[in-house]
Amino acid sequence: MLYFLIAFVLVSVIQSFLHQLQMKKVNMFFYELRERGNVLVGMKRNMFKKSAVLMMLLNQNNIEEAYIMYGRSTLSKIKPYPEIQGKNIYKADISHNRTIELALKNAIDKIQSK
Fold first, then answer.
1. Which one of 18, 45, 65, 96 is least enclosed by Cβ atoms within 10 Å?
2. Alpha helix (H) ranges present in 1-114?
3. Residue 113, Cα to own-chain centre: how many angstroms?
């Protein structure tokens, strides 16, 4: 029982460290994008399924560049997402992936609530 408790604490500490490292990288990437123009971020978080963070550099309502962090763990990386680059934000179609589609809808909701 003691070994289980020690292992759990050790895994929790490692997970916390990796989460902080990932958030630091995401924030740095966001601020680099922000210096280049208007950035819109949409998120869909899930406890047991894959989560998505979608970052888009906008020119009016058109997506100049799009990046995504998609996965289950803190080992997920930010990658370019060319499927929606050059498209209008309201007409971008991501119906092939429900989680990313919900992240895009979250971003659009943020625009409409302003």
1. 96
2. 2-36, 98-112
3. 20
